[in-house]
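# nightly structure sweep
# worker-07 picked up a monomer target from the shared queue
# config: single-sequence mode, recycle default, output format = structure tokens
# input follows
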Amino acid sequence: MDAAENIEQNLVPDGLYFAGAGAYTIVNELPQDEKAREDLLDRAMGEGRRRKSSEKLRRGRLPSEGLAFSARGAGGALLGTVRLWDIQAGHDAAGKGVRALLLGPLAVDPASKDLGIGSALMRHAVKEAARLGHGAIILVGDPEYYERFGFTGAKTAGLAMPGPVERRRFLALELKPGHLDGAKGLLTPKGRRSSRAMRIIPVSLRFSA
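# output follows
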């Protein structure tokens, strides 16, 4: 199953996702989401999240434009979050920098676990990254979870994180076939720099109930 086939599950025509007796929508993240998002990440991942190698690629940067998403319950509560970040995935055989996206963190409020929210966020993020023309997504996560979305370690053997990483959890998904062929070297941050006041630029695509 390729990236394009991974993204339509659980989505009904009007953009409303159903989770048991409840429902939620996925929308572009807004500036006012920042505090609620940080609180959710603390609950879901703990304080140790700030010491992960991936954080070195996100620190001081804004997410890739149009690629920061929130899952909201029927009452507007933040139930989940995912962001993608512009990075350079080393260089190709000709020495040219390889642009890619870093996904993470993906997190769901512990009170809303096992409702399919994380999977819906992943499928939406992959779909949007492909629609915007990006070539590949890289992440650090459990293959037992992320393989269902097409992520494998096949294209990360020549790449390195800016810190310790468990190789089996260093995964990638090509949105354009061959985009990571021959890519070698250290992942480095690219894209927009952050200011002290967090700003997210919304895009026109938005789901509503």
